[in-house]
Amino acid sequence: AAGVIQSPRHLIKEKRETATLKCYPIPRHDTVYWYQQGPGQDPQFLISFYEKMQSDKGSIPDRFSAQQFSDYHSELNMSSLELGDSALYFCASSFGLSNTEAFFGQGTRLTVV
Amino acid sequence: GQQVMQIPQYQHVQEGEDFTTYCNSSTTLSNIQWYKQRPGGHPVFLIQLVKSGEVKKQKRLTFQFGEAKKNSSLHITATQTTDVGTYFCAGSGGSNYKLTFGKGTLLTVNP
Questions:
Q1: DSSP-assigned beta bridge partners for residue A55
Q2: Contacts of residue A98 in chain B, CB cutoff 8 Å?
Q3: Cβ neighbours of residue B89 under 8 Å, at least 6 residues apart?
Q4: How confident is the model at residue B94 (pLDDT cuts 50, 70, 90)?
């Protein structure tokens, strides 16, 4: 069965550079979530989209932005990268907003040097 | 905002022993989900509980949702080395659709 696809899997950037992470949800899933997970920590919610509109916002820095496109894929844009942005970034998708399981992608490991 | 607390943070057991992790929310939840994350992997959905007092079983795993829908537990009977990983609870509630994760419980199993 198709799963959530994230690209790239690994990314190395220098401080102050920009990065774009992409997420392709499971077919027919209309909701996408972005999470940031630091080493040994729980996933922290960043932002979510439902039917191409932002549905919820968490601890996403102003330097980051995201959107969901007409084909339901989503991109997380990160600018002025800082060392502390180094983390695993997970995208998850679901069908609908509430009471529905979320399927996680394998994540993008971002390292800022 | 909604907070989800999870204990213990770590649990080390001998193979064959039981294991339980507990989850408490600061607010009433509409549902709670449990995920397992292996080292270096991504969270994998285990189960979702929606009803007050609900109990669900998956082989050696038993999941409970409290009557007040503010707490939940995951119990593993007779742990195996394949159970190693971090178990997260994640809840959503009210108009808040996002999943808020607990800190997770890292389970290690000594063969």
A1: none
A2: 30-31, 92, 97
A3: B4, B6, B21, B23, B32, B33, B34, B35, B72, B74, B101, B102
A4: low
